[in-house]
């Protein structure tokens, strides 16, 4: 695994100049974060169709039935036991974002960084803060906190309430795997999560979930700037806007000691 990561870094170093991509990619998104937060959990797009737009991404499933990880053209579901499972192409998603991942440059990841420190290191790369930024981080993690949630049934509660009362958190120690992440600009805060949003999939494809916190081991980040976003809006969805407070309550909820 380490040898593969080193080869990726060397290969990208030969041709990649941050910020000077010949053509920035397009991301494809199903629905909006505002709709999801308000209870828009009914799936509208099949996973098979989602993959026609990109091989790298994250999201959730019909009824917010677990966390979605899209890696190397395969889709996995993280369930409340912290396990990851391959998903049938017929499964539906109410919210997801994918892109055809074509990294433009790389960054070595030093051991001992928190999630905030890793995000700050990625933010320091010379890419536009006004565009979407995708990052794939491969490596070993000294510790990582992941979460998922059980499938919901109508009438749906807001996602803030679901996460507050039903999220299940697992801590994995000394685990090899991949972070799948996107950073959206502040101007897109009602469309997707403004700032960073990471999901995790272990190298053996058996563990995964939404990332709440971590401590890095050695690794490498592969990054891509994305200039365009295509959104598939559902025919009907809750009318809502996403406040910074509600997004924080879902993305980085307070975690009790020991969880």
How would you summarize this macromolecular structure in one to three sentences?
The chain has 259 residues and is an alpha+beta fold. It has helices spanning 2-15, 33-37, 47-51, 115-123, 159-166, 244-251; strands spanning 25-30, 45-46, 56-60, 67-71, 74-78, 84-86, 92-93, 96-99, 105-109, 132-148, 168-184, 195-202, 208-232. It starts with a helix and ends in an 8-residue tail after the last helix.
Core attributes:
259 residues; alpha+beta; eleven-stranded mixed β-sheet; 13 strands; 19% helix; 40% strand; globular
- Give the CA-CA distance, first to last residue: 29 Å
Tally of discrete structural domains: 1
Q: What is the N-to-C succession of helices and strands?
A: HEHEHEEEEEEEHEHEEEH
Q: CATH topology, what is it called?
A: 60s Ribosomal Protein L30, Chain: A
Strand portion: 35-45%
Query: Share of helix among residues?
Result: 10-25%
Helices, by number, come to: 6
Verbal overview:
This protein is α+β, with helices and mostly antiparallel strands and 259 residues long. It has a single domain (2-16, 23-251), classed as 60s Ribosomal Protein L30, Chain: A, CATH 3.30.1330. The protein contains 6 helices and 13 strands. The protein has helices at 2-15, 33-37, 47-51, 115-123, 159-166, 244-251, and strands at 25-30, 45-46, 56-60, 67-71, 74-78, 84-86, 92-93, 96-99, 105-109, 132-148, 168-184, 195-202, 208-232. The strands form 2 sheets. Strands 1, 3, 4, 5, 6, 8, 9, 10, 11, 12 and 13 form an 11-stranded mixed β-sheet that branches. A hairpin with a 6-residue loop joins strand 3 (56-60) and strand 4. Helix 5 (159-166) packs parallel to helix 6. The two termini are 29 Å apart. The model is unreliable at 9-22 (pLDDT under 50).
